[in-house]
Amino acid sequence: xxxxxxxFEQVQNVxxxxxxxxxxGQPTLVFVVSTDLALFRRNNVNMxxxxxxCLRLLTVELPAAPTATQPLRRTxxxxxxxAYLIARAAPQAKKHALRHA
Length: 101
Known about the structure:
Elements: E1 2-11, E2 14-22, E3 29-36, H1 37-42, H2 50-61, E4 72-75, H3 78-99
Parallel strand pairs: 3-4
Antiparallel strand pairs: 1-2, 2-3
């Protein structure tokens, strides 16, 4: 399944990122991932990274996602943010190690 980022909506301090899951010959699935923007500030993550964070989250969970006619909703947690930060740092740490080897 291919995930397409469709944009976001924001109400006060909560942003909802929308994705469409498309697969040939299958109905389009709608995924909505919401996050409290305070989570970004607490972890020093730029708002522009929101779609990448949500895409990573959906990609990890996609094999377990059922087919649904209603939007599938998920909320980003502190644990999700930590996993994203670790995954984001891994390539940089590898580059650093190679330079100093």
